[in-house]
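Forgive a beginner's question, but would it be possible to get a protein, spelled out as residues, together with the matching C-alpha cells, please?
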Amino acid sequence: MESNGLTLHSYSLGDGVVAFSTTRHGGYPAADNYNSFNINPFCGDSAEHVAQCRKALCRELGIADERLVLPHQVHGVETRIISAEYCSLPEQVRTMIVDGVDAVMTAVPGLCIGVSTADCVPVLLHDPVHRAVCAVHAGWRGTLARVTHKAVVDMRAAFGTAPADLHAVVGPCISLANFEVGDEVYEQFAAADFNLDAASVRREKWHIDLPEINRQLLVQAGLDEANIAMSGICTYDRCNDFFSARRLGIESGRIFNGVMLSTDC
C-alpha cells in the first residue's frame, strides 16, 4: 500500500479489515535513526516529526487524529478495550487510558488501533464473526508472560470471540538467527514450559524464536493453525526497511502495527 509518500506493509486478515505495519519509507526527513516515518512519541524523536508522520498516516487511512490509538507500552500483559466514547474524550484522558497497556482491542469501525515495535513481536487479530480486532505487543518479557494468549482470552470475554474463528498475523520482528540471549533469559523460558525444541538453538549463546513462541501461544489459545500468518520479516536483517532497536539503538523509531475495521461493512 503506497499513498501520500507512505509505504505500508499490508496483511490480509479477512474482508472488512485493514491491517498493516509501517515501514521506514515515506514520511518526512529526520535524524537517521528516526528517518523517515515514525509516529511513536515515546522513543526520543522530535514532537514535530512525530506529529507530521501521524497526520500523514491518518490521511492515508482516512480517519481523524483521535481515531488512531497508540498505547504507551511497558512490556506487560495489560489489555484495553477501546470503545466509541474514547474518541470524544480530551486528549489527556485518551492518553491516560492507554498508558501502561500492551494490547488494545475494539469493535468500533473506523478506529485504528495498533502497537509499536522495533524487534518485539506484533500480533494482529481479527474476529470476523463478532467484528472485532486486537493488536498485541509481545517483547520477550511479554511473550514469557503469555500476553498473546491473554489477549485472545480477553477478546472472548469482551466480544464473545471464539478462538477458532480468529485470524492472526505475526508481523515483523527479530528472528531466531538474531535474537541472542543470555543463559538467565533462556532458563526463564525453559522454566515456563514453552516448546523450546522448536523455538531455540544453542550457538555461542542461546537464540530464541520469539515469533514461533507467539505462534505456539495462539495455537494453545485455540486458533486454527491455518488461520495464523507469519510475516517472516526479520527487523534486524531488514533495518533499512523496518526499525530495529538492536541494530539502531533504543533511541530510534518504531514500527506501528495497526488494524482497523472498515466502515463500509
Notes: The mean pLDDT is 96. The longest helix spans residues 47-61. The chain has seven helices and 15 strands.
